[in-house]
UniProtKB/TrEMBL annotation:
Protein name: Periplasmic copper-binding protein NosD beta helix domain-containing protein
Source organism: Streptomyces thermolineatus
Composition-biased stretches (Gly residues): 15-29
Gene3D superfamilies named in the record: Single-stranded right-handed beta-helix, Pectin lyase-like
Region described as Disordered: spans on this chain: 15-35
KW Repressor (keyword) present: no
Length: 445
């Protein structure tokens, strides 16, 4: 944390719209400050809206928001500022279903902390280097296809202690972004995915210690790989818990090189959730055309269709995925590999898992790691339950109060590192079975 350098007293400009300028005079609406000083801008004490405060902020400043419901879409295009609510549950950015995004981050080094975003037609929080995505142009049909726009990455970000609920596409979305962390956050009621990372390679992104429930999908990583870590999350009570996949709609195909470790992935057949267009239901984790991913020491339990599914994305095979030291209990099928088209997987393997059922049978023996990279993956089918109808994302149950950012009102601005520290899988433990019944709106059957 950076030291708090002081509080900025702001005086609204008189007449007109406040003019422009570099912040040195009162007519710009910006108070004077010593050169290089970092300040705290308080909402509404110093600026009436979050957007007004963000427009006044300079690199290194903290925008601190008092409790209230703010009907605005906040755009952050100044590097290295911190946007923080003084109370996670009581500082609410509410889109009223009239705007695509709650908070859009398009500058590096920005931290968004300790607030709630809800009722946006697309995303609660969007972090992106894509100008088209930041403009809210794509996304209406359930994905981001930026056409011929070159891939431009936003480099370095932090989303922490954010509650994202009842958003029409994604709760927390990092798209065409790298070198970031999504942590200690909660996502529910997303009509697609609660937390989504898309179009990055290498990502250098860590998604850790989050809760995603009552979404169509808890976590989704599309064309996201290369130091992409999903660690220690609770993905319970969605329609699908987690997917890592390749998709032609986004750039940087194929998805390759994620680590999914130490997660609780359970009871993902909740009916009071938004229906996803693909119709997935009752699945803990899926690898769909992704390669060289490692699933390590996850607890995957009580998913009625299947615990973990490996399949292909149209013409993109899953290759070299390793499923190691996971515990599977109470799933319809613990591990199922299915390739309904001519595209087949290669080199996928299992080792050291606690499991009971696989399709095809005896995968733990016939596909044991290590396996030659070119070894064809067998395929099978099983009787999956029919997915029930869902509910509109606007009707998903409201979240319970979530843990607060420590010392939110007194801590200084957060310094976001250029590249986050990446976790070591050796230190990631299997989640205990006691977590199956703790801290969730839904319970494992």
């Amino acid at each position: 944390m950076a030291a708090l350098a002081g509080t900025l007293t702001l005086v609204a400009g008189c007449g007109g719209d406040g003019g422009g300028g570099d912040g040195g005079d009162g007519g710009s609406g910006k108070g004077r400050r010593p050169a290089g000083a970092h300040v705290t801008i308080e909402v509404p004490a110093d600026a009436p809206t979050i957007s007004d405060a963000v427009s006044l902020a300079r690199p290194g400043d903290l925008v601190l928001v008092a409790p209230g419901v703010y009907h605005e879409s906040v755009r952050i295009d100044t590097a290295r500022i911190t946007l923080r609510g003084s109370s996670r549950d009581k500082v609410v950015v509410d889109g009223r279903l009239q705007q695509p995004n709650g908070v859009v981050v398009s500058a590096p080094g920005v931290a968004v902390e300790n607030l709630t975003v809800r009722n946006n037609t697309q995303n609660g929080i969007l972090v992106t280097g894509s100008a088209k995505a930041a403009a809210g142009l794509p996304g209406g049909s359930g994905g981001y296809d930026t056409g011929d726009e070159p891939v431009t990455f936003l480099k370095s970000f932090l989303v922490s202690h954010v509650t994202a609920t009842r958003n029409g596409l994604y709760g927390i979305y990092a798209f065409s972004a790298r070198n970031g962390v999504i942590e200690h956050s909660y996502a529910s009621g997303s009509a697609d995915s609660g937390i989504y990372v898309g179009q990055c390679k290498p990502c250098n992104i860590v998604v850790r210690d989050n809760v995603a429930e009552l979404n169509a999908v808890g976590y989704e990583g599309t064309n996201a790989g290369g130091d992409m870590y999903v660690v220690g999350n609770r993905l319970v009570g969605n329609r699908v818990g987690l997917t890592t996949n390749s998709n032609h709609q986004e750039k940087l195909l194929p998805q390759k090189g994620s680590v999914v470790a130490g997660n609780l992935i359970a009871a993902n057949q909740q009916t009071a959730t938004p229906e996803q267009a693909d119709g997935g239901w009752g699945i803990g984790a899926g690898i769909d055309g992704g390669s060289d991913n490692r699933f390590v020491r996850n607890r995957i339990a009580g998913n009625r269709n299947a615990g973990l599914v490996i399949t292909a994305t149209s013409d993109i095979p899953p290759v070299g995925n390793r499923i190691v030291d996971n515990t599977f209990t109470g799933n319809g099928v613990d591990v199922g590999w299915t390739f309904p088209t001519a595209t087949r997987g290669r080199g996928n393997c299992l080792r050291g898992n606690d499991l009971r059922t696989t399709v095809p049978a005896r995968l733990a023996t016939t596909a044991a790691c290590p396996l030659p990279a070119g070894a064809s993956s067998p395929t099978g089918t099983w009787a999956a339950q029919t997915a029930p109808g869902g509910v509109p994302f606007t009707e998903v149950a409201a979240p319970a109060p979530q843990p607060q950012f420590p010392d939110a009102a007194t801590a200084g601005a957060t310094v976001v590192p250029p590249v986050p520290a990446l976790p070591s899988t050796e230190g990631v433990r299997l989640p205990p079975a006691s977590l199956l019944a703790a801290n969730a709106l839904v319970q494992t059957p």
